Amino acid sequence: FPGEVAAAAADSFPPVAALQYAIDAVHSFTGLNWWASIAVTTILIRTVTIPLLVNQLKSTMKLNAMRPEIEAINMEMRNSMDPQSMLEGKRKLGELFTKRGVNPLTPLKGLFIQGPIFMSFFFAIQNMVEKVPSLKGGGAYWFTDLTTPDELYILPVLTSVTFLATVELNMQEGMEGNPMLQTMKKFSRILALMTIPFTMHFPK
């Protein structure tokens, strides 16, 4: 039903529309029903981001190797606490990161990459649910109608677990001595758990 998807994509933002066309292309090319087409598209997108995530892992390993030097500078800053020493410590940290070619926000790269993709998928599916009638019969097992909520709450729980796993895998290194990143990790964990009540009434 290419016309259905074209109508849904017509009023979508470009990244959302691109995902809708990608799902439709998989659906048309493979002959799979909608739920499987969505799953295959998700796997393909994940595959495309693997090189970026590998690069993040390498950068995180570099950041881990720098940890003793970072801790030494942080210790100097904590021991003195005067404004001049704090500025000097920040300058040393900046020079260290520049010298090693590492960004202190490296542990968040995975979320920065996958977050927009996740949101684009969410809006793409939501828009298709409203404007692609064939999704009513595009499911399987207990979720045959993709336009209605999952009464067993299995899919919302899976969404939450996947989100939480992404947070844990992408932010498992480089947290030590960085209160801001630790706070962001805690916030991301809470957000992952909140996806269950947030998505439980959404269409499958």
Automatic annotation (TrEMBL):
Q: How does it sit in the membrane?
A: Multi-pass membrane protein
Q: According to its UniProt record, which protein family does this protein belong to?
A: Belongs to the OXA1/ALB3/YidC (TC 2.A.9.2) family.
Could you tell me what this protein is called?
Answer: Membrane insertase YidC/Oxa/ALB C-terminal domain-containing protein
Native source species:
Aegilops tauschii subsp. strangulata (Goatgrass)
- Where do the TM regions start and end? 34-54
Q: Which keywords does UniProt give here?
A: Membrane, Transmembrane, Transmembrane helix
Concerning NCBIfam families, the annotation shows: yidC_oxa1_cterm (TIGR03592)
Which GO terms fall under molecular function for this chain's record? membrane insertase activity
**GO biological process assignments:** protein insertion into mitochondrial inner membrane from matrix
GO-annotated cellular components? mitochondrial inner membrane
Where the record annotates domain Membrane insertase YidC/Oxa/ALB C-terminal, the positions are 34-202
Lineage, opening ranks: Eukaryota, Viridiplantae, Streptophyta, Embryophyta, Tracheophyta
- InterPro entries tied to this protein: YidC/ALB3/OXA1/COX18, YidC/Oxa/ALB_C
Instruction: Tell me the domain of life.
Output: Eukaryota
